[in-house]
């Protein structure tokens, strides 16, 4: 699966800890990330990540473009709900795209843990069915 990892500044430590804890699961998948988040994860783990721009510089939009073209299967986006974000419209657009294209989205570490444990068990096979159906239309 193709997984996007994104974290606001105050949640980057949580994302690094999460990626470290679930490195054996995540390293079996193709990973994408916004700039600084990806850099920090790669410094703390052996995970290989395709990095985009930082979120405020267009990284959220780059991930959104992959969602819109069915190139992302799962988004883990650790948001900071207590800090105003200058690129809030980009964040809202990414969340909306995940809803439109039926992409599982975790916006906090608790939900991310449930999704990754499901991923480990193979619970996301339904994505293959949707991909097959969409490509035949």
Please tell me about this protein's structure.
- With 137 residues, the protein is an alpha/beta fold.
- The protein has one domain (2-136): 3-Layer(aba) Sandwich (Rossmann fold), CATH 3.40.50.
- The chain has seven helices and five strands; from the N terminus they run E-H-H-E-H-E-H-E-H-E-H-H.
- It has a five-stranded parallel sheet with strand order 3-2-1-4-5, with helices on both faces.
- Strand 2 (30-33), helix 3 (35-44) and strand 3 form a beta-alpha-beta unit.
Quick overview of this protein structure:
This protein has 137 residues and is an alpha/beta fold. The protein is built from seven helices and five strands.
Task: Compile the SSE list and pairings.
Blueprint (H helix, E strand, L loop, with lengths): L1 E6 L4 H10 L1 H4 L3 E4 L1 H10 L4 E3 L7 H10 L5 E5 L9 H13 L4 E2 L2 H13 L4 H11 L1
Parallel strand pairs: 1-2, 1-4, 2-3, 4-5
């Amino acid at each position: 699966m193709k997984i996007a990892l994104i974290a606001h500044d105050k949640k980057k430590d949580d994302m690094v800890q999460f990626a470290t804890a679930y490195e054996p699961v995540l390293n079996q998948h193709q990973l994408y990330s916004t700039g600084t988040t990806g850099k920090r994860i790669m410094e703390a783990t052996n995970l290989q990540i395709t990095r985009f721009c930082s979120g405020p510089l267009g990284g959220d939009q780059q991930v959104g473009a992959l969602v819109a073209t069915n190139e992302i299967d799962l988004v883990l986006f650790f948001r900071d709900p207590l800090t105003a974000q200058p690129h809030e419209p980009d964040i809202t657009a990414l969340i909306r795209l995940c809803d439109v294209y039926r992409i599982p989205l975790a916006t906090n570490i608790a939900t991310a843990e449930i999704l990754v444990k499901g991923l480990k068990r193979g619970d996301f096979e339904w994505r293959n069915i949707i991909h097959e159906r969409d490509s035949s239309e």
